[in-house]
Protein backbone atom coordinates (compact mmCIF):
# COMPACT_ATOMS: atom_id res chain seq x y z
CA UNK A 1 0.00 0.00 0.00
CA UNK A 2 1.25 3.46 -0.83
CA UNK A 3 1.43 6.08 1.85
CA UNK A 4 -0.76 9.12 1.30
CA UNK A 5 0.23 10.92 4.47
CA UNK A 6 3.82 10.91 5.72
CA UNK A 7 4.48 12.29 9.17
CA UNK A 8 8.04 12.83 10.28
CA UNK A 9 9.40 13.92 13.65
CA UNK A 10 6.29 15.85 14.52
CA UNK A 11 6.36 17.81 17.78
CA UNK A 12 3.41 19.87 18.90
CA UNK A 13 3.25 22.23 21.86
CA UNK A 14 0.27 23.88 23.51
CA UNK A 15 2.20 26.74 25.07
CA UNK A 16 4.78 24.96 27.22
CA UNK A 17 3.03 21.64 27.17
CA UNK A 18 4.29 19.16 24.61
CA UNK A 19 1.30 17.19 23.39
CA UNK A 20 2.99 15.29 20.56
CA UNK A 21 6.50 13.94 20.83
CA UNK A 22 8.47 13.16 17.75
CA UNK A 23 5.72 11.34 15.87
CA UNK A 24 6.68 9.56 12.69
CA UNK A 25 4.32 7.38 10.69
CA UNK A 26 2.88 6.76 7.27
CA UNK A 27 -0.84 6.60 6.66
CA UNK A 28 -1.69 4.30 3.77
CA UNK A 29 -3.95 5.36 0.96
CA UNK A 30 -7.51 4.03 0.68
CA UNK A 31 -7.47 2.24 3.97
CA UNK A 32 -8.73 2.86 7.48
CA UNK A 33 -6.19 3.83 10.10
CA UNK A 34 -7.35 3.88 13.70
CA UNK A 35 -5.81 5.89 16.53
CA UNK A 36 -6.32 4.37 19.96
CA UNK A 37 -5.00 5.23 23.38
CA UNK A 38 -6.09 6.57 26.74
CA UNK A 39 -7.71 9.97 27.14
CA UNK A 40 -5.33 12.88 26.70
CA UNK A 41 -2.63 10.98 24.84
CA UNK A 42 -2.80 13.24 21.80
CA UNK A 43 -5.00 11.41 19.31
CA UNK A 44 -7.21 14.37 18.51
CA UNK A 45 -4.22 16.66 18.45
CA UNK A 46 -2.53 14.61 15.77
CA UNK A 47 -5.75 14.24 13.82
CA UNK A 48 -6.35 17.98 13.90
CA UNK A 49 -2.79 18.56 12.71
CA UNK A 50 -3.67 16.82 9.48
CA UNK A 51 -6.08 19.56 8.42
CA UNK A 52 -4.41 22.29 10.44
CA UNK A 53 -7.41 22.77 12.74
CA UNK A 54 -4.92 23.36 15.53
CA UNK A 55 -4.20 26.70 13.89
CA UNK A 56 -7.36 27.93 15.63
CA UNK A 57 -5.88 27.42 19.07
CA UNK A 58 -3.73 30.34 20.16
CA UNK A 59 -0.28 29.36 21.40
CA UNK A 60 0.21 26.11 19.51
CA UNK A 61 3.59 25.51 17.97
CA UNK A 62 4.36 22.72 15.61
CA UNK A 63 7.69 21.32 14.40
CA UNK A 64 8.44 18.56 11.96
CA UNK A 65 6.88 17.56 8.73
CA UNK A 66 3.54 16.34 7.47
CA UNK A 67 3.30 15.55 3.79
CA UNK A 68 0.02 14.79 2.10
CA UNK A 69 0.43 13.32 -1.37
CA UNK A 70 4.00 14.51 -1.25
CA UNK A 71 3.15 18.10 -0.37
CA UNK A 72 4.37 19.63 2.89
CA UNK A 73 1.41 21.15 4.76
CA UNK A 74 3.24 22.74 7.68
CA UNK A 75 4.40 25.79 5.79
CA UNK A 76 3.18 29.34 6.15
CA UNK A 77 2.53 29.42 2.43
CA UNK A 78 0.12 26.49 2.59
CA UNK A 79 -3.37 27.30 1.39
CA UNK A 80 -5.15 26.02 4.48
CA UNK A 81 -8.61 26.38 3.00
CA UNK A 82 -7.64 24.25 0.06
CA UNK A 83 -6.03 21.73 2.39
CA UNK A 84 -9.26 21.45 4.36
CA UNK A 85 -11.17 20.84 1.20
CA UNK A 86 -8.91 17.86 0.50
CA UNK A 87 -8.90 16.65 4.09
CA UNK A 88 -12.46 16.50 5.36
CA UNK A 89 -13.41 16.11 8.99
CA UNK A 90 -16.25 14.56 10.95
CA UNK A 91 -16.47 15.55 14.59
CA UNK A 92 -17.47 13.82 17.77
CA UNK A 93 -20.76 15.64 18.12
CA UNK A 94 -22.86 15.76 14.97
CA UNK A 95 -22.63 19.39 13.89
CA UNK A 96 -24.84 20.01 10.89
CA UNK A 97 -25.36 23.62 9.93
CA UNK A 98 -28.71 24.97 11.04
CA UNK A 99 -29.98 24.80 7.50
CA UNK A 100 -31.97 22.30 5.49
CA UNK A 101 -30.63 18.83 4.78
CA UNK A 102 -30.11 19.78 1.16
CA UNK A 103 -28.30 22.99 2.01
CA UNK A 104 -25.95 21.21 4.36
CA UNK A 105 -24.66 19.02 1.59
CA UNK A 106 -24.81 21.62 -1.16
CA UNK A 107 -22.98 24.17 0.92
CA UNK A 108 -19.44 23.06 0.19
CA UNK A 109 -19.83 22.43 -3.54
CA UNK A 110 -21.52 25.79 -3.95
CA UNK A 111 -18.62 27.41 -2.21
CA UNK A 112 -16.31 25.85 -4.72
CA UNK A 113 -18.23 27.24 -7.62
CA UNK A 114 -20.89 24.68 -8.48
CA UNK A 115 -24.09 26.64 -8.92
CA UNK A 116 -26.12 24.79 -11.50
CA UNK A 117 -29.21 23.42 -9.86
CA UNK A 118 -29.04 20.15 -11.71
CA UNK A 119 -25.40 19.52 -10.90
CA UNK A 120 -26.02 20.36 -7.25
CA UNK A 121 -29.01 18.04 -7.10
CA UNK A 122 -26.90 15.24 -8.47
CA UNK A 123 -24.07 15.91 -6.10
CA UNK A 124 -26.37 16.08 -3.10
CA UNK A 125 -27.94 12.78 -4.05
CA UNK A 126 -24.59 11.13 -4.69
CA UNK A 127 -23.14 12.34 -1.41
CA UNK A 128 -26.19 11.33 0.56
CA UNK A 129 -26.12 7.92 -1.07
CA UNK A 130 -22.43 7.54 -0.26
CA UNK A 131 -23.26 8.38 3.33
CA UNK A 132 -26.06 5.80 3.33
CA UNK A 133 -28.62 8.44 4.17
CA UNK A 134 -30.40 9.04 0.89
CA UNK A 135 -33.25 6.60 1.37
CA UNK A 136 -34.09 8.02 4.76
CA UNK A 137 -34.18 11.67 3.79
CA UNK A 138 -34.90 11.85 0.09
CA UNK A 139 -38.50 12.86 0.62
CA UNK A 140 -37.77 15.77 2.90
CA UNK A 141 -34.55 17.35 1.78
CA UNK A 142 -35.95 20.77 2.58
CA UNK A 143 -36.42 19.96 6.24
CA UNK A 144 -34.09 21.27 8.87
CA UNK A 145 -31.01 19.18 9.46
CA UNK A 146 -31.52 19.80 13.17
CA UNK A 147 -34.72 17.81 13.15
CA UNK A 148 -33.27 14.40 12.20
CA UNK A 149 -31.82 11.89 14.64
CA UNK A 150 -28.27 12.09 15.94
CA UNK A 151 -27.16 9.13 13.86
CA UNK A 152 -28.70 10.62 10.75
CA UNK A 153 -27.10 13.97 11.54
CA UNK A 154 -23.73 12.32 11.78
CA UNK A 155 -24.19 10.63 8.42
CA UNK A 156 -25.30 13.99 7.05
CA UNK A 157 -22.03 15.46 8.29
CA UNK A 158 -20.21 12.69 6.46
CA UNK A 159 -22.19 13.49 3.32
CA UNK A 160 -21.35 17.15 3.73
CA UNK A 161 -17.67 16.31 3.95
CA UNK A 162 -17.85 13.94 0.95
CA UNK A 163 -19.63 16.50 -1.20
CA UNK A 164 -16.45 18.50 -1.74
CA UNK A 165 -14.69 15.32 -2.87
CA UNK A 166 -11.85 15.08 -0.37
CA UNK A 167 -8.98 12.60 -0.47
CA UNK A 168 -8.88 12.07 3.25
CA UNK A 169 -11.63 11.79 5.83
CA UNK A 170 -10.77 12.41 9.47
CA UNK A 171 -13.18 11.07 12.08
CA UNK A 172 -12.68 12.02 15.69
CA UNK A 173 -14.72 9.63 17.83
CA UNK A 174 -17.51 10.12 15.38
CA UNK A 175 -19.69 7.38 16.80
CA UNK A 176 -19.19 7.97 20.49
CA UNK A 177 -22.32 10.10 20.78
CA UNK A 178 -24.49 7.62 18.91
CA UNK A 179 -26.62 4.61 19.76
CA UNK A 180 -25.38 1.10 18.83
CA UNK A 181 -27.45 0.79 15.68
CA UNK A 182 -26.34 4.14 14.31
CA UNK A 183 -22.79 3.23 15.24
CA UNK A 184 -23.04 0.02 13.29
CA UNK A 185 -24.38 1.88 10.27
CA UNK A 186 -21.46 4.25 10.32
CA UNK A 187 -18.99 1.41 10.74
CA UNK A 188 -20.45 -0.29 7.67
CA UNK A 189 -20.30 2.99 5.87
CA UNK A 190 -16.63 3.41 6.70
CA UNK A 191 -15.99 -0.02 5.22
CA UNK A 192 -17.57 1.17 1.99
CA UNK A 193 -15.82 4.51 1.96
CA UNK A 194 -12.34 3.15 2.33
CA UNK A 195 -12.49 1.95 -1.26
CA UNK A 196 -12.40 5.57 -2.33
CA UNK A 197 -11.07 7.57 0.56
CA UNK A 198 -8.23 7.47 3.01
CA UNK A 199 -9.77 7.37 6.44
CA UNK A 200 -8.19 8.19 9.76
CA UNK A 201 -10.36 7.60 12.80
CA UNK A 202 -9.93 8.14 16.49
CA UNK A 203 -11.84 5.73 18.66
CA UNK A 204 -12.11 4.75 22.28
CA UNK A 205 -13.85 1.60 21.33
CA UNK A 206 -11.28 -1.15 20.91
CA UNK A 207 -13.77 -3.44 19.23
CA UNK A 208 -14.54 -0.76 16.73
CA UNK A 209 -10.87 -0.33 15.87
CA UNK A 210 -10.54 -4.10 15.53
CA UNK A 211 -13.66 -4.38 13.37
CA UNK A 212 -13.17 -1.45 11.08
CA UNK A 213 -9.56 -0.53 10.62
CA UNK A 214 -6.69 -1.91 8.58
CA UNK A 215 -3.94 -0.28 10.60
CA UNK A 216 -3.97 0.66 14.24
CA UNK A 217 -1.77 3.13 16.06
CA UNK A 218 -1.50 3.01 19.82
CA UNK A 219 -0.60 6.31 21.52
CA UNK A 220 0.55 6.99 25.04
CA UNK A 221 1.47 10.39 26.46
CA UNK A 222 1.98 12.00 23.09
CA UNK A 223 4.07 9.20 21.66
CA UNK A 224 3.40 6.41 19.24
CA UNK A 225 3.97 3.19 21.16
CA UNK A 226 3.03 0.76 18.47
CA UNK A 227 1.87 0.93 14.90
CA UNK A 228 0.89 -2.23 13.07
CA UNK A 229 -1.70 -4.09 11.08
CA UNK A 230 -4.85 -4.11 13.10
CA UNK A 231 -4.86 -7.88 13.27
CA UNK A 232 -1.28 -8.07 14.42
CA UNK A 233 -1.66 -5.30 16.96
CA UNK A 234 -4.66 -6.87 18.60
CA UNK A 235 -3.50 -10.50 18.44
CA UNK A 236 0.23 -10.25 19.05
CA UNK A 237 1.16 -6.79 20.26
CA UNK A 238 4.91 -6.35 20.44
CA UNK A 239 4.91 -3.80 23.26
CA UNK A 240 3.92 -4.63 26.80
CA UNK A 241 2.02 -1.35 27.20
CA UNK A 242 -0.09 -2.05 24.12
CA UNK A 243 -0.97 -5.43 25.51
CA UNK A 244 -1.96 -3.91 28.83
CA UNK A 245 -4.11 -1.33 27.15
CA UNK A 246 -5.98 -3.58 24.74
CA UNK A 247 -6.59 -6.15 27.41
CA UNK A 248 -8.16 -3.41 29.50
CA UNK A 249 -5.61 -3.31 32.25
CA UNK A 250 -5.42 0.49 32.09
CA UNK A 251 -6.84 3.49 30.24
CA UNK B 1 -37.80 21.25 58.52
CA UNK B 2 -38.11 18.63 55.85
CA UNK B 3 -37.10 19.16 52.25
CA UNK B 4 -40.62 19.06 50.88
CA UNK B 5 -41.82 21.81 53.17
CA UNK B 6 -38.76 23.92 52.42
CA UNK B 7 -39.40 23.46 48.74
CA UNK B 8 -43.00 24.55 49.15
CA UNK B 9 -42.11 27.62 51.13
CA UNK B 10 -39.43 28.63 48.65
CA UNK B 11 -41.84 28.16 45.77
CA UNK B 12 -44.49 30.17 47.54
CA UNK B 13 -42.08 33.04 48.18
CA UNK B 14 -40.88 33.08 44.59
CA UNK B 15 -44.42 33.03 43.27
CA UNK B 16 -45.39 35.83 45.64
CA UNK B 17 -42.48 38.01 44.63
CA UNK B 18 -43.01 37.44 40.92
CA UNK B 19 -46.71 38.05 41.35
CA UNK B 20 -46.01 41.32 43.10
CA UNK B 21 -43.72 42.47 40.31
CA UNK B 22 -46.20 41.50 37.64
CA UNK B 23 -48.95 43.34 39.46
CA UNK B 24 -46.79 46.40 39.84
CA UNK B 25 -45.97 46.45 36.14
CA UNK B 26 -49.52 45.74 35.11
CA UNK B 27 -50.71 48.51 37.40
CA UNK B 28 -48.25 50.97 35.99
CA UNK B 29 -49.07 50.04 32.44
CA UNK B 30 -52.78 50.13 33.17
CA UNK B 31 -52.51 53.53 34.78
CA UNK B 32 -50.66 55.02 31.83
CA UNK B 33 -53.02 53.44 29.34
CA UNK B 34 -56.24 54.35 31.11
CA UNK B 35 -55.13 57.93 31.51
CA UNK B 36 -53.78 58.22 28.01
CA UNK B 37 -56.03 56.18 25.79
CA UNK B 38 -58.98 58.50 26.27
CA UNK B 39 -57.03 61.17 24.52
CA UNK B 40 -56.23 59.06 21.47
CA UNK B 41 -57.51 60.16 18.12
CA UNK B 42 -56.23 60.34 14.59
CA UNK B 43 -56.01 64.07 15.03
CA UNK B 44 -53.95 63.78 18.20
CA UNK B 45 -51.45 61.52 16.51
CA UNK B 46 -51.01 63.64 13.43
CA UNK B 47 -51.56 67.32 14.17
CA UNK B 48 -48.90 69.68 15.49
CA UNK B 49 -48.97 70.83 19.13
CA UNK B 50 -50.56 74.05 20.28
CA UNK B 51 -48.81 76.38 22.68
CA UNK B 52 -51.67 78.11 24.48
CA UNK B 53 -54.85 76.66 23.08
CA UNK B 54 -56.26 73.22 23.76
CA UNK B 55 -56.43 70.45 21.17
CA UNK B 56 -52.79 70.21 20.13
CA UNK B 57 -51.36 66.95 18.83
CA UNK B 58 -48.05 65.19 18.76
CA UNK B 59 -47.64 64.52 15.02
CA UNK B 60 -44.22 66.11 14.49
CA UNK B 61 -42.87 64.69 17.74
CA UNK B 62 -43.91 61.19 16.81
CA UNK B 63 -42.30 61.60 13.43
CA UNK B 64 -39.15 63.05 15.00
CA UNK B 65 -38.83 60.15 17.38
CA UNK B 66 -39.10 57.60 14.61
CA UNK B 67 -36.80 59.48 12.27
CA UNK B 68 -34.22 59.98 14.98
CA UNK B 69 -34.40 56.29 15.76
CA UNK B 70 -33.78 55.41 12.13
CA UNK B 71 -30.83 57.81 11.95
CA UNK B 72 -29.33 56.41 15.13
CA UNK B 73 -29.72 52.87 13.95
CA UNK B 74 -28.17 53.71 10.59
CA UNK B 75 -25.09 54.81 12.48
CA UNK B 76 -25.04 52.18 15.23
CA UNK B 77 -25.90 48.99 13.41
CA UNK B 78 -22.95 48.90 10.98
CA UNK B 79 -20.50 50.19 13.57
CA UNK B 80 -21.78 47.93 16.32
CA UNK B 81 -21.86 44.84 14.13
CA UNK B 82 -18.35 45.51 12.90
CA UNK B 83 -16.94 46.14 16.35
CA UNK B 84 -18.84 43.20 17.83
CA UNK B 85 -17.55 40.81 15.19
CA UNK B 86 -14.06 42.10 15.76
CA UNK B 87 -14.27 41.76 19.53
CA UNK B 88 -15.73 38.30 19.40
CA UNK B 89 -13.77 36.72 16.56
CA UNK B 90 -10.64 38.67 15.77
CA UNK B 91 -9.38 40.44 18.89
CA UNK B 92 -6.77 38.36 20.66
CA UNK B 93 -7.82 37.68 24.21
CA UNK B 94 -5.60 39.65 26.56
CA UNK B 95 -5.26 42.78 28.63
CA UNK B 96 -5.86 45.16 25.77
CA UNK B 97 -9.05 43.45 24.65
CA UNK B 98 -10.28 43.31 28.22
CA UNK B 99 -9.55 47.01 28.53
CA UNK B 100 -11.59 47.81 25.42
CA UNK B 101 -14.41 45.71 26.79
CA UNK B 102 -14.25 47.61 30.06
CA UNK B 103 -14.46 50.92 28.21
CA UNK B 104 -17.46 49.70 26.30
CA UNK B 105 -19.17 48.74 29.57
CA UNK B 106 -18.42 52.10 31.12
CA UNK B 107 -19.66 53.92 28.07
CA UNK B 108 -22.97 52.11 28.16
CA UNK B 109 -23.57 53.00 31.77
CA UNK B 110 -22.96 56.72 31.41
CA UNK B 111 -25.80 58.78 32.83
CA UNK B 112 -27.70 60.06 29.84
CA UNK B 113 -27.68 63.67 31.02
CA UNK B 114 -23.89 63.55 30.94
CA UNK B 115 -23.99 62.24 27.40
CA UNK B 116 -26.38 65.06 26.58
CA UNK B 117 -24.02 67.70 27.94
CA UNK B 118 -21.11 66.07 26.16
CA UNK B 119 -23.16 66.27 22.99
CA UNK B 120 -23.86 69.94 23.63
CA UNK B 121 -20.20 70.80 24.11
CA UNK B 122 -18.68 68.62 21.43
CA UNK B 123 -21.29 67.96 18.77
CA UNK B 124 -23.51 71.01 18.95
CA UNK B 125 -20.82 73.61 19.69
CA UNK B 126 -17.35 72.34 18.80
CA UNK B 127 -18.43 70.52 15.66
CA UNK B 128 -21.00 73.20 15.00
CA UNK B 129 -23.84 70.81 14.25
CA UNK B 130 -26.26 73.06 16.14
CA UNK B 131 -29.38 71.62 17.74
CA UNK B 132 -30.03 69.00 15.15
CA UNK B 133 -31.26 65.50 14.53
CA UNK B 134 -27.74 64.54 13.58
CA UNK B 135 -26.31 65.75 16.89
CA UNK B 136 -29.09 63.88 18.68
CA UNK B 137 -28.43 60.70 16.73
CA UNK B 138 -24.72 60.88 17.48
CA UNK B 139 -25.38 61.43 21.19
CA UNK B 140 -27.69 58.44 21.24
CA UNK B 141 -25.00 56.48 19.45
CA UNK B 142 -22.76 57.00 22.45
CA UNK B 143 -24.81 54.67 24.57
CA UNK B 144 -26.41 52.64 21.90
CA UNK B 145 -23.16 51.59 20.30
CA UNK B 146 -21.79 49.73 23.33
CA UNK B 147 -25.10 47.92 23.61
CA UNK B 148 -24.92 46.96 19.97
CA UNK B 149 -21.34 45.72 20.33
CA UNK B 150 -22.30 43.59 23.29
CA UNK B 151 -25.37 42.21 21.58
CA UNK B 152 -23.33 41.21 18.53
CA UNK B 153 -20.66 39.63 20.68
CA UNK B 154 -23.25 37.69 22.65
CA UNK B 155 -24.95 36.59 19.48
CA UNK B 156 -21.75 35.25 17.98
CA UNK B 157 -20.71 33.60 21.22
CA UNK B 158 -24.04 31.81 21.29
CA UNK B 159 -23.15 29.96 18.09
CA UNK B 160 -22.01 26.45 19.02
CA UNK B 161 -18.26 26.08 18.56
CA UNK B 162 -18.91 22.86 16.66
CA UNK B 163 -20.71 24.73 13.92
CA UNK B 164 -17.93 27.23 13.55
CA UNK B 165 -15.43 24.39 13.33
CA UNK B 166 -17.62 22.60 10.81
CA UNK B 167 -17.44 25.62 8.56
CA UNK B 168 -13.69 25.96 8.87
CA UNK B 169 -13.14 22.23 8.42
CA UNK B 170 -15.06 22.41 5.18
CA UNK B 171 -12.46 24.85 3.90
CA UNK B 172 -14.34 28.09 4.44
CA UNK B 173 -12.29 31.16 5.18
CA UNK B 174 -12.72 32.73 8.57
CA UNK B 175 -14.74 35.65 7.26
CA UNK B 176 -16.89 33.38 5.14
CA UNK B 177 -17.55 31.18 8.17
CA UNK B 178 -18.54 34.19 10.22
CA UNK B 179 -20.71 35.62 7.50
CA UNK B 180 -22.50 32.57 6.26
CA UNK B 181 -22.50 30.15 9.19
CA UNK B 182 -22.24 32.14 12.38
CA UNK B 183 -24.14 35.34 11.60
CA UNK B 184 -27.28 33.56 10.40
CA UNK B 185 -27.34 31.58 13.63
CA UNK B 186 -26.65 34.71 15.65
CA UNK B 187 -29.10 36.97 13.86
CA UNK B 188 -32.17 36.22 15.96
CA UNK B 189 -30.21 37.13 19.09
CA UNK B 190 -28.71 40.22 17.46
CA UNK B 191 -32.00 41.33 16.02
CA UNK B 192 -33.90 40.93 19.26
CA UNK B 193 -31.22 42.85 21.09
CA UNK B 194 -31.20 45.57 18.47
CA UNK B 195 -34.90 46.16 18.67
CA UNK B 196 -34.76 46.26 22.45
CA UNK B 197 -31.96 48.80 22.17
CA UNK B 198 -34.13 50.73 19.77
CA UNK B 199 -36.85 50.80 22.39
CA UNK B 200 -34.45 52.43 24.76
CA UNK B 201 -33.47 55.05 22.20
CA UNK B 202 -37.12 55.76 21.56
CA UNK B 203 -37.76 56.58 25.18
CA UNK B 204 -34.64 58.63 25.76
CA UNK B 205 -35.10 62.27 26.73
CA UNK B 206 -32.22 63.61 28.82
CA UNK B 207 -29.52 63.07 26.21
CA UNK B 208 -31.63 64.84 23.61
CA UNK B 209 -32.56 68.03 25.47
CA UNK B 210 -29.32 69.71 24.50
CA UNK B 211 -28.54 67.91 21.27
CA UNK B 212 -31.63 67.39 19.16
CA UNK B 213 -33.14 70.37 20.94
CA UNK B 214 -36.53 71.14 22.43
CA UNK B 215 -38.30 72.59 19.45
CA UNK B 216 -39.24 71.71 15.91
CA UNK B 217 -39.58 74.06 13.01
CA UNK B 218 -42.99 74.07 11.35
CA UNK B 219 -42.58 70.95 9.29
CA UNK B 220 -43.83 70.85 5.76
CA UNK B 221 -44.90 67.26 5.19
CA UNK B 222 -45.09 67.79 1.47
CA UNK B 223 -41.43 68.67 1.12
CA UNK B 224 -39.28 65.57 1.17
CA UNK B 225 -36.04 67.13 0.02
CA UNK B 226 -33.61 66.42 2.88
CA UNK B 227 -31.73 69.65 2.17
CA UNK B 228 -34.55 72.11 2.57
CA UNK B 229 -34.91 73.56 6.08
CA UNK B 230 -38.58 72.69 6.62
CA UNK B 231 -38.39 69.20 5.24
CA UNK B 232 -39.11 66.52 7.83
CA UNK B 233 -36.15 64.60 6.47
CA UNK B 234 -33.56 67.33 6.97
CA UNK B 235 -31.07 65.85 9.47
CA UNK B 236 -29.66 69.27 10.33
CA UNK B 237 -32.89 70.69 11.75
CA UNK B 238 -33.71 70.73 15.44
CA UNK B 239 -36.22 68.12 16.47
CA UNK B 240 -38.20 67.65 19.63
CA UNK B 241 -38.95 63.99 20.21
CA UNK B 242 -41.93 62.45 21.92
CA UNK B 243 -40.10 61.80 25.17
CA UNK B 244 -38.72 65.33 25.26
CA UNK B 245 -42.17 66.66 24.47
CA UNK B 246 -43.69 64.82 27.41
CA UNK B 247 -41.06 66.29 29.68
CA UNK B 248 -41.61 69.78 28.29
CA UNK B 249 -45.37 69.70 28.42
CA UNK B 250 -45.25 68.48 31.98
CA UNK B 251 -42.67 71.02 33.04
CA UNK B 252 -43.81 74.17 31.28
CA UNK B 253 -46.90 73.38 29.22
CA UNK B 254 -49.27 76.35 28.96
CA UNK B 255 -52.07 74.69 27.04
CA UNK B 256 -55.12 74.03 29.21
CA UNK B 257 -55.07 70.37 28.24
CA UNK B 258 -51.33 69.94 28.99
CA UNK B 259 -51.91 67.11 31.44
CA UNK B 260 -54.05 65.15 28.97
CA UNK B 261 -51.53 65.69 26.23
CA UNK B 262 -48.72 64.43 28.41
CA UNK B 263 -50.80 61.40 29.37
CA UNK B 264 -51.73 60.69 25.77
CA UNK B 265 -48.16 61.08 24.59
CA UNK B 266 -46.94 58.80 27.37
CA UNK B 267 -49.38 56.14 26.32
CA UNK B 268 -48.21 56.43 22.73
CA UNK B 269 -44.62 56.10 23.87
CA UNK B 270 -45.28 53.07 26.02
CA UNK B 271 -47.36 51.43 23.34
CA UNK B 272 -44.67 51.96 20.75
CA UNK B 273 -42.00 50.47 22.96
CA UNK B 274 -44.33 47.56 23.66
CA UNK B 275 -44.80 47.07 19.95
CA UNK B 276 -41.04 47.11 19.52
CA UNK B 277 -40.69 44.32 22.01
CA UNK B 278 -43.37 42.22 20.42
CA UNK B 279 -41.85 42.83 17.00
CA UNK B 280 -38.45 41.83 18.35
CA UNK B 281 -39.74 38.48 19.50
CA UNK B 282 -41.74 37.80 16.42
CA UNK B 283 -38.98 38.79 14.04
CA UNK B 284 -36.37 36.90 16.00
CA UNK B 285 -38.39 33.73 15.79
CA UNK B 286 -39.26 34.30 12.16
CA UNK B 287 -35.64 34.85 11.18
CA UNK B 288 -34.52 31.84 13.15
CA UNK B 289 -36.98 29.66 11.32
CA UNK B 290 -36.09 31.14 7.98
CA UNK B 291 -32.37 30.73 8.39
CA UNK B 292 -32.40 27.33 10.00
CA UNK B 293 -35.29 25.84 8.06
CA UNK B 294 -36.89 24.61 11.29
CA UNK B 295 -40.59 24.66 11.90
N1 LIG C 1 -6.25 23.71 23.51
C1 LIG C 1 -5.41 23.08 24.35
N2 LIG C 1 -4.61 23.78 25.17
C2 LIG C 1 -3.76 23.16 26.01
N3 LIG C 1 -3.64 21.84 26.12
C3 LIG C 1 -4.43 21.07 25.33
C4 LIG C 1 -5.34 21.66 24.40
N4 LIG C 1 -5.98 20.66 23.76
C5 LIG C 1 -5.48 19.52 24.26
N5 LIG C 1 -4.55 19.75 25.19
C6 LIG C 1 -3.77 18.74 25.92
O1 LIG C 1 -3.05 17.97 24.99
C7 LIG C 1 -3.11 16.60 25.34
C8 LIG C 1 -3.66 15.80 24.20
O2 LIG C 1 -5.01 16.18 23.99
P1 LIG C 1 -5.93 15.47 22.91
O3 LIG C 1 -7.20 16.20 22.88
O4 LIG C 1 -5.17 15.34 21.65
O5 LIG C 1 -6.13 14.05 23.57
P2 LIG C 1 -6.97 12.82 23.07
O6 LIG C 1 -6.04 11.69 22.93
O7 LIG C 1 -7.77 13.19 21.89
O8 LIG C 1 -7.91 12.57 24.30
P3 LIG C 1 -9.44 12.08 24.32
O9 LIG C 1 -9.38 10.62 24.08
O10 LIG C 1 -9.89 12.39 25.68
O11 LIG C 1 -10.16 12.82 23.25
C9 LIG C 1 -3.95 16.51 26.60
O12 LIG C 1 -3.09 16.39 27.69
C10 LIG C 1 -4.70 17.81 26.65
O13 LIG C 1 -4.87 18.21 27.99
MG1 LIG D 1 -9.86 13.50 21.50
TrEMBL record, chain A:
Q: Which GO terms describe its biological process?
A: phosphate ion transmembrane transport
> What GO molecular function annotation could you give as one example from this UniProt entry?
phosphate transmembrane transporter activity
Q: Provide the primary localization.
A: membrane
TM helices/strands, residue ranges = none
* UniProt key word Iron-sulfur: no
Domain of life from the UniProt record: Bacteria
Q: Which Pfam families match?
A: ABC_tran
Q: What is this protein called?
A: Phosphate ABC transporter ATP-binding protein
Output the lineage of the source organism: Bacteria, Bacillati, Bacillota, Bacilli, Bacillales
**Gene name linked to the record:** pstB
UniProtKB/TrEMBL annotation, chain B:
The record's section on InterPro entries has: MetI-like, MetI-like_sf, Phosphate_PstA
Q: Does the keyword Protease apply?
A: no
Supply one GO CC term from the record. plasma membrane
Determine the domain of life of the protein's source: Bacteria
- Listed GO MF terms: phosphate transmembrane transporter activity
Which compartments is it annotated to reside in?
Cell membrane
Key words of the record: Cell membrane, Membrane, Transmembrane, Transmembrane helix, Transport
Gene Ontology terms: biological process: phosphate ion transmembrane transport
Cell membrane in keyword set: yes
Its transmembrane ranges are 12-34, 66-87, 99-123, 129-149, 181-202, 261-280
Q: How does it sit in the membrane?
A: Multi-pass membrane protein
UniProt domain ABC transmembrane type-1: residue ranges: 62-280
The family line of this record is: Belongs to the binding-protein-dependent transport system permease family. CysTW subfamily.
- The name this protein goes by in its record: Phosphate transport system permease protein PstA
Amino acid sequence: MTALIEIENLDLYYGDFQALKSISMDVPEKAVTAFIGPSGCGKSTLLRSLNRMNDLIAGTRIEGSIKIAGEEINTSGMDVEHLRKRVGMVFQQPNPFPKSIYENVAYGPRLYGINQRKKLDELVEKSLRSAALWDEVKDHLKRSALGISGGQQQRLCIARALAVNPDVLLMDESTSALDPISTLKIEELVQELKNEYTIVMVTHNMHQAARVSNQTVFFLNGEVVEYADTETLFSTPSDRRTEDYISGRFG
Amino acid sequence: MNAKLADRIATAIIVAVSGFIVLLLAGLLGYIMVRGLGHFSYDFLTSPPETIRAGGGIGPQLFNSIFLLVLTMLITIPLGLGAGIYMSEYARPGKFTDFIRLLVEVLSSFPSIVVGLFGLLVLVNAFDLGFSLLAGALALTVFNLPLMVRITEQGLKSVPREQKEAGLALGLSKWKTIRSIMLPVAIPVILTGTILAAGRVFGEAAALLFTAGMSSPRLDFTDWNPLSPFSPLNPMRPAETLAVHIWKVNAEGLAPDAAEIAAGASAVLVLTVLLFNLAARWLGRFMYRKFTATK
